[in-house]
């Protein structure tokens, strides 16, 4: 009796190379849609097997993801960061973070829907007590759990193979590391959801037979929308753009080669993809940032990461509704701030350097302090004091000036010796008595983008201070002084004039003879705030340099599950570690994929005569795995050259593609031997594989759901004997 096809099973109409077989189009389509074991299994179970298996997989997903979700009832790892950000959204308080805002906004939304008021102070190891934290954990767990059906449906849409889809889902369900990552208040579950949804939408789009139909537009737009969501949660989501872009280029190239269509048809396809995969994601990303900046309109402790002009729009900030002289005159008391991320104030105090010239220390600090105030005076002027009858003398671009510390009377001075830490730069000190000094106190003012003689203005103007005698530029280095410098940032004079950290601005100007203006004239537009936010975010990410850290890892460690990552050690231990059987199985499946690729290449090169069915299976498997492997590479390879500190969880976007490749290769093994084994053996094999996955998952559940802090070498430890390799730290 002829079997009725599932509605989800459709002929592959993606622009992939045609399969060179002797089968007619209809039989090739059915061969594609109904792998042998799927067909046999359906015939023996009555046709409802797809929904039965899918339902069981969803029940298993919910069971393992939501089991003991409340436990541990304490703040674990990065919950401290994202929980605090949720607080700040709920309290409308501005903050700085290196990640885009969507994920944190969703965490705040989950908390808000659960009645959380943003009052709990998140700190690693702190007990939640009566705080309503479960809404945030449940929201993250739901988004993480949705990854399983999305990946299942992606493989089904790409291959119509129920075994391949099922194996993919099983790998995801019983992976201990994914369970851990989905159970806490983190950004990763949301990012994995958007990545999975993007790949699912792209697979659906590639199956559409009618170009420019409603469904064609729907799935193309969905791809762009979910892609925007992925990089609106974390910038790692940008790697997905490479995969989507490569597939779009490939499709356009195939369409261009269709000689039955005019070139204008290809142009239409290009414009449609540009609209949905470029313009739409960019517009959504900008809109998300607009909402982010509208919500966070109150000043907070992290305002100092941004420029003074940025801070003007934040209610409660010292610059909001403030006034002061717009132009800077000689004799004014000023406060000078560095322009870069975490820009700090130029500072001095009476303590001396214990090295070098042993003169007064010059540093930069975050805090607003009386020791951050300086007089500005002409280079030939000792005293900054002025008379009311003297004409107002304005500071101009190109002037030669001196800067005197208001509290101690020492001039900002360059000493030709090496700086305390950055020994390729010159030491900057406080020198002189009551403004008296020498010509190493002279600085030439260079206003960025200003004409010669233009008057220096506060906030708006960015400038450099160049020592003409020593041919160097005043800069704040990235290094902190030791204990004798109170951990403040080092200030030096850099002979290399092209230094991004050598730009400064004045954010406070006190001179009673000039009229005050409202700081609202410096308020930035949304676009300017958007650009500055991204400059700070990119610099913040670049600033995460490797340090000695228990959690640091390198990309080569990730696929082999070499080392995990602690999520909690206070009271109970949560350890992020992949299910070793599944992860090491991924490595074997990758080897099998490469072997299959080589064998298929040899077969085609040597024109080896093999069964059409087997040849079709190989090509279908390779075609699907090709794009999954490209997705894996797009999310894995970029981490290799990165200089920033890396963590184990950075691998998980690539892991999604690794799981899907493993599902495909397991299905390939079964399909290859479909004629040689019975359905009963198939059932035993799948049952055995499921048992192995589950048992391996079960063995490592103590570190997945939390166990008392007892090292694994003790006989009474729940993890006794489970430290299979020495690099695991539990």
Automatic annotation (TrEMBL):
Similarity remark: Belongs to the glycosyltransferase 39 family.
Source organism: Daphnia sinensis
Topological category with respect to the lipid bilayer: Multi-pass membrane protein
Name of the featured protein: Protein O-mannosyl-transferase 2
GO MF annotations, alphabetized: dolichyl-phosphate-mannose-protein mannosyltransferase activity
Pathway connected to this protein: Protein modification; protein glycosylation
Pfam families: MIR, PMT, PMT_4TMC
Location of this chain's protein in the cell: Endoplasmic reticulum membrane
Residue ranges crossing the lipid bilayer per the database entry: 49-67, 136-156, 184-205, 217-250, 270-291, 583-603, 624-642, 648-669, 681-700
Lineage of the species this protein comes from: Eukaryota, Metazoa, Ecdysozoa, Arthropoda, Crustacea
E.C. designation(s): 2.4.1.109
Primary residence: endoplasmic reticulum
Region Disordered: start-end pairs: 1-23
Domain MIR: 325-379, 392-448
Alphabetical list of SMART domains matching this protein: MIR
The keyword Endoplasmic reticulum is annotated on this UniProt entry: yes
Keywords assigned by UniProt, alphabetized: Endoplasmic reticulum, Glycosyltransferase, Membrane, Repeat, Transferase, Transmembrane, Transmembrane helix
GO cellular component: endoplasmic reticulum membrane
Gene3D superfamilies noted in UniProt: 2.80.10.50
Reaction it catalyzes: a di-trans,poly-cis-dolichyl beta-D-mannosyl phosphate + L-seryl-[protein] = 3-O-(alpha-D-mannosyl)-L-seryl-[protein] + a di-trans,poly-cis-dolichyl phosphate + H(+); a di-trans,poly-cis-dolichyl beta-D-mannosyl phosphate + L-threonyl-[protein] = 3-O-(alpha-D-mannosyl)-L-threonyl-[protein] + a di-trans,poly-cis-dolichyl phosphate + H(+)
């Amino acid at each position: 009796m002829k079997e009725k096809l599932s509605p989800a099973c459709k002929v592959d109409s993606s622009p992939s190379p045609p399969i060179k077989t002797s089968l007619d189009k209809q039989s090739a389509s059915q061969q594609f849609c109904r792998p042998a074991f799927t067909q046999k299994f359906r015939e023996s179970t009555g046709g409802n097997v797809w929904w039965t298996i899918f339902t069981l997989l969803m029940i298993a997903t919910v069971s393992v993801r939501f089991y003991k979700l409340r436990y541990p009832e304490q703040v674990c790892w990065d919950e401290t960061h994202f929980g605090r950000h949720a607080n700040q959204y709920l309290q409308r308080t501005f903050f700085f973070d290196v990640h885009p805002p969507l994920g944190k906004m969703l965490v705040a939304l989950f908390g808000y829907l659960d009645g959380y008021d943003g009052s709990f102070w998140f700190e690693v190891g702190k007990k939640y007590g009566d705080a309503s934290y479960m809404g945030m954990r449940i929201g993250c767990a739901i988004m993480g759990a949705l990854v399983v059906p999305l990946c299942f449906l992606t493989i089904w849409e790409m291959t119509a193979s129920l075994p391949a889809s099922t194996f993919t889902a099983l790998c995801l369900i019983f992976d201990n590391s994914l369970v851990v990552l989905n159970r806490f208040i983190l950004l990763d579950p949301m990012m994995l959801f958007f990545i999975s949804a993007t790949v699912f939408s792209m697979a659906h789009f590639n199956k559409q037979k009618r170009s420019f139909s409603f469904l064609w537009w729907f799935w193309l737009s969905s791809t762009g929308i979910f892609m925007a969501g992925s990089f609106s949660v974390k910038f790692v989501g940008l790697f997905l753009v490479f995969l989507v872009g490569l597939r779009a280029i490939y499709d356009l190239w195939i369409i261009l080669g269709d000689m039955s269509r005019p070139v204008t048809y290809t142009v239409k396809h290009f414009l449609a993809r540009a609209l949905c995969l470029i313009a739409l994601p960019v517009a959504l990303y900008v809109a998300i940032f607009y909402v982010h900046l509208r919500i966070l309109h109150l000043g907070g402790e992290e305002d100092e990461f941004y420029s003074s002009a940025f801070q003007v729009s934040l209610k409660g900030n010292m610059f909001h509704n403030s006034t002061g002289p717009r132009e800077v005159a000689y004799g004014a008391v000023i406060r000078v701030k560095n322009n870069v991320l975490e820009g700090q104030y130029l500072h001095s105090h009476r303590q001396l350097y214990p090295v070098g010239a042993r003169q007064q220390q010059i540093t930069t600090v975050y805090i607003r302090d009386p020791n951050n105030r300086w007089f500005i005076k002409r280079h030939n002027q000792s005293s900054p004091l002025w008379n009311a009858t003297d004409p107002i003398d304005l500071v101009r671009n190109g002037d030669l000036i001196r800067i005197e510390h208001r509290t101690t009377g020492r001039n900002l001075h360059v000493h030709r010796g090496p700086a305390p830490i950055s020994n390729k730069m010159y030491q900057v000190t406080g020198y002189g008595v009551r403004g008296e000094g020498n010509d190493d106190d002279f600085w030439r003012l260079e206003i960025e983008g200003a004409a010669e003689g233009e008057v220096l203005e506060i906030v708006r103007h960015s400038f450099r201070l160049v020592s003409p005698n020593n041919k160097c530029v005043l800069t704040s280095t990235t290094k902190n002084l030791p204990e004798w410098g109170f951990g403040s940032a080092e200030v030096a004079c850099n002979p290399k004039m092209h230094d991004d950290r050598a730009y400064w601005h004045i954010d406070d100007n006190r001179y009673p003879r000039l009229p005050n203006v409202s700081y609202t004239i410096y308020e930035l537009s949304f676009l300017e705030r958007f650009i500055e936010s991204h400059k700070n975010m990119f610099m913040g990410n670049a600033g995460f340099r490797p340090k000695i850290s228990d959690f640091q890892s390198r990309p080569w460690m990730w696929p082999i599950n070499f080392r995990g990552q602690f999520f909690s050690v206070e009271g109970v231990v949560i350890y992020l570690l992949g299910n070793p059987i599944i992860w090491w199985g991924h490595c074997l499946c990758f080897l099998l994929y490469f072997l299959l690729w080589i064998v298929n290449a040899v077969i085609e090169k040597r024109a080896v005569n093999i069964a059409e069915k087997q040849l079709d299976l190989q090509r279908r498997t390779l075609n699907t795995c090709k794009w999954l492997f490209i997705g894996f590479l797009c999310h894995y390879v970029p981490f290799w050259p990165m200089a920033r500190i890396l963590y184990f969880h950075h691998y998980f976007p690539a892991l999604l593609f690794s799981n899907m490749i493993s599902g495909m290769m397991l299905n390939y093994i079964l399909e290859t031997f479909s004629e040689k084994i019975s359905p009963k053996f198939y059932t035993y094999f799948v049952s055995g594989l499921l048992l192995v996955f589950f048992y391996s998952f079960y063995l490592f559940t103590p570190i997945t759901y939390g166990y008392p802090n007892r090292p694994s070498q003790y006989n009474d430890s729940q993890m006794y004997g489970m430290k299979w390799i020495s690099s695991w730290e539990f």
